[in-house]
Amino acid sequence: MSAVGRFHRHADGTAHDHAHARDGHEHVPHDLGDHSGYRTGSERVEVLERIFGENDRTAALNRADFAAVGVRSVNLMSSPGAGKTTVLRETLLRLAGSMRVGIVEGDIETSLDADRLAGLGAAIALVNTGDGFGGECHLDAPMVRSALPRLPLSDLDLVLIENVGNLVCPAEFDVGEHARAMVYAVTEGEDKPLKYPVMFRSVELVLINKIDLLPHLDFDLAAFRANLRAVNPAAATLEISARTGEGVDAWCDWLRAQVAGAPAPVIG
Amino acid sequence: MHELSICGAIADIATRRAGERRVESVHVRIGQLRQVVPDTLTYCWELVVADSELDGAVLDVEQVPARIECRDCGRTGEIGDVPVFACHVCNSVEVSVIAGEEFVITALDLAAV
User: Fold this and answer.
1) Which residues in chain B have Cβ-Cβ distances shorter than 8 Å to A134?
2) Do A78 and A85 touch, CB atoms closer than 8 A?
3) In chain B, which residues have their Cβ closer than 8 Å to the Cβ of A43?
4) Are A50 and B24 an interchain contact pair (Cβ–Cβ within 8 Å)?
5) Cα–Cα distances in angstroms (integers) from residue B12 to residues B20, B57, B86, in the given order
6) Distances in whole angstroms, Cα of residue B35 to Cα of each of A76, A96, A122, A199, B38
7) Which residue in A89, A129, B21, B79 is deepest, having the highest Cβ count within 10 Å?
8) B108 contact A CB<8A
9) Domain residue spans in chain A?
């Protein structure tokens, strides 16, 4: 803690005035003479506190709740329209009967995405982020925490968290996941890893979706991979088409590996 | 885009740390990799603190350029406007981000009691 009082000792007695634009006060012109001891009374207090500390503490609680019942969680992110919900639909169709899946579905105002996933055997908890501060463009850890009581966690193997479609904000928020993946559509162009490096750096896996459209596009897959490597050399990729089903089995294998890597449930 | 929620988080911390004292300024340090637009942040700050006990408090944003360190050759450098997370000298991708991910409130200027 350090005090930053503004002492002014003017041995030469020069008259002047101060006008501090940023600190919210102005001195009136003051006059000759000794005015040692004069101070404005502002004190600087060191804080050094992480701005998202509260979110990160809640994320740790979520992760601990998942771990306590042996559930793995995957945070799935993308821009709007990249195909997250279609990928999830195809995923649930393939995992039905072999893996117990819960979905946390982030949507700004509607239940449209949740409706598309209903009836596929997964437990779904919808989070409308429109109630968040300012109408949120992402899921944060408290939002996901609010959804957990609506999932039968102890009966599940995997929780897929479908984030709000957005390449900026979701990357900033740890929601308590064990792994992060993103869906990227070839219609989005090759340059996005360079424009949204924080998102692309934050994921373990990029699903390159809509590859059935490649014959109709100028999309340069090699250039996209080079851009991805520039920001995240460790990211794995899978080429898929949620529409034709191509590659979706490989994604399901990746999810099975995530679940197999989960630590055993805490007993007692 | 998430500047509003960031300002909400900053305001919560500032209010809690200030106790009964009036906050004149809030100093934050934000790295380049945080995707925060400073002008948007200060605009949102004014919206968030208006009519609250923080009304009038100035948000002072210190931006930190992103820097990487090569784990192979040890060189350091800024990543620049086009983000390439590879060593500028030996091209190794075995690099660590050593600056640019900061996201902290560093200090408060509080009025005298």
Assistant:
1) 4-5, 8
2) no
3) 109-112
4) no
5) 14, 13, 38
6) 20, 39, 35, 10, 9
7) B79
8) yes
9) 1-48, 53-260
Q: Considering CB atoms only, which of A4, A48, A134 is closest to B106?
A: A48
- In angstroms, the Cα distances linking A243 to A29, A78, A127, A211, B99 are 74, 17, 26, 9, 41
ipTM score assigned to the predicted complex: 0.86
Share of chain A above pLDDT 70, in %: 80
Residues B61 and B31: beta-carbon distance below 8 Å: no
The contacts of residue B70 (CB under 8 Å, 6+ apart) are: B76, B87, B89, B90, B92, B94, B95
**Is B25–A22 a contact, with Cβ atoms under 8 angstroms apart?**
yes
- The structure tokens listed for B19 are 């106790």
**pLDDT band, residue A14 (cuts 50/70/90):** very low
Lowest mean pLDDT among A3-12, B45-54, B62-71: A3-12
Architecture field, domain A53-260: 3-Layer(aba) Sandwich (3.40)
The minimal CB distance from B103 to the residues A45, A50, A137 is found for: A50
A196 to chain B nearest CA, in Å? Answer: 9
Domains of chain B: 3-110 (3.30.2320.80)
C-alpha of B111 from chain center: 23
For range A179-186, the mean pLDDT = 98
A131 Cβ under 8 Å from any chain B Cβ: no
